Amino acid sequence: MHIDILTLFPEMFSGVFQSSILKKAHEKEQFSYNLINFRDYTESKHNKVDDYPYGGGAGMVLSPQPVFDAVESIVNNQKRKPRIVLMCPQGETYNQKKAEELAKEDHLIFICGHYEGYDERIRENLVTDEISIGDFVLTGGELGAMVVVDSVVRLLPNVLGNKDSAPQDSFSTGLLEHPHYTRPADFRGMKVPDVLLSGNHAKIEAWRKEQSLKRTYERRKDLLDSLTLTKEDTNLLKKIIQEEP
User: Fold this and answer.
1) Does 41 have pLDDT greater than 80?
2) Pairing between β-strand 186-187 and β-strand 190-191 as defined by DSSP bridges
3) Which domains does the chain have, with CATH numbers?
4) Which of 43, 160, 171, 210 would staple 96 via disulfide (CB 3.0–4.6 Å)?
């Protein structure tokens, strides 16, 4: 996968791409990236990329010209148009399903806005996706793009050390992930559940499934509404509900 990021503040990404999993994945050539300051593409003699909104109002609006020209410089001569993602509070709320969808692409372009908003022609004629990471407003799209890129890259083949890690993440199965424990088995009198020490893999998997259902029911009931539960899961959920204090 190759990722292009259009931003007025490319320096914001240096820590993210030079740390942890993203750094290792880039060094192993499991993905590549390019940071593009779209101010470099403006035709304004004053080097501006924004202007006052028609009709009046507060704030400044990003002009279409530098953004269109920057994107076109990337996609020229490409047979297939890449996914072009606009980071925007008006976009669809980001989730794991969208991350898995984007992880199948060979090329992603992210547009990070600033100021009051985008000229609507960018939204209507250039982008393929609009993404919001939540119902709140940031000063720009950079932080949102970092979140999306991290969540996508970790899903690429061989990026995570254990191939089973990503499929078992919270939301990947539709449920929140079960609790985890590690050594010591007894820490200050707080003990690991006996079933995890039993060596009985069937019982361990059953416990994990029940705990996953329980945690989802307690913390995110809304997730259960969109799931098709098996008969076994339905019975487990009934048991969990009955055991509520």
Assistant:
1) yes
2) antiparallel
3) 2-153 (3.40.1280.10), 173-242 (1.10.1270.20)
4) 171
